[in-house]
Write a structure and sequence with these properties.
The protein is mainly alpha-helical. It is 41% helix and 4% strand.
């Protein structure tokens, strides 16, 4: 019984350490739902919708780990800069006033990302912007 308890304590400590190392933010559980709700409508893989081909705005896709890190036409490689939230356009554009031309989502295209969710995205980026096992679309 003592061996099992010791093993469980060690396992819990390992999980806590891993969470601390990646900023304690789980991409799939915490960040992906925000992106799906606020960003995918305009920034996902080219597809047909209502008989029309819908392309990702600005060439930016946020529906896959590789394409997030690749970035769009405007700021390639700068959408998410691991460890550098202030250099990451994903976060910068969310924090702009709604009236700014670069604000995301743009005025009239959906509700803004809450300050709480922006803080969570910032923490994820500070922690290295790790995607875990999620790959998404490529």
């Amino acid at each position: 019984m003592k061996i099992i308890a010791t093993a469980l304590i060690a396992l819990a400590a390992t999980a806590i350490t891993a969470a601390a190392q990646d900023g304690g933010v789980d991409f799939e559980k915490q960040i992906l739902p925000i992106l799906k709700d606020k960003c995918f409508n305009c920034h996902e893989k080219e597809h047909e919708e209502k008989g029309k081909i819908k392309k990702p705005k600005g060439g930016l896709r946020l529906d896959g780990a590789d394409v997030i890190m690749k970035g769009g036409k405007e700021y390639p490689g700068e959408t998410v800069v691991a460890g550098k939230p202030d250099a990451s356009w994903l976060l910068k554009t969310m924090a702009l006033p709604e009236s700014d031309d670069l604000a995301m989502p743009p005025e009239g295209k959906g509700d803004r990302v809450s300050a709480e969710n922006q803080a969570l995205i910032k923490k994820w980026i500070e922690g290295g912007a790790k995607f875990g096992s999620w790959k998404g679309e490529s």
